[in-house]
Amino acid sequence: xxxxxxxxxxxxxxxxxxxxxxxxxxxxxxxxxxxxxxxxxxxxxxxxxxxxxxxxxxxxxxxxxxxxxxxxxxxxxxxxxxxxxxxxxxxxxxxxxxxxxxxxxxxxxxxxxxxxxxxxxxxxxxxxxxxxxxxxxxxxxxxxxxxxxxxxxxxx
Length: 156
Hints:
By secondary structure, the chain is an all-beta fold. It has one domain. It is 0% helix and 39% strand. It contains no helices and 19 strands. The radius of gyration is 15 Å and the shape is globular. The protein starts with 5 loop residues before the first strand and ends with a strand.
């Protein structure tokens, strides 16, 4: 079993009828691709320890919310006001940021980056490798977006 890297604080909020608790780092986490997360720093919001692995460099930052059976692992990050829920999984060095919403059985892997004001990845969608989803985009299919693809769709 991995050494603990965070604890659930007593600070809580209710979001979509789910009680979420803020996390606090209990050791320094030094990802190569991001700023140092120092021991004692507050992170984002999770429903339970099942949502965020203690292994790797993964982290939930800022006001991001992870709940349900959603899982953050590897060196992945969920940040800003992003919402990660359902059975969604993020791993590798993937990033979900902005006001993105990831739900259903979506899989975000590799070095994929999802960032935008109203980006939604849902259903059985898979975003991986070097894919980037930005802007006001929606991805709701089982088709993978991968292999250094850059996909940006702005709804009008």
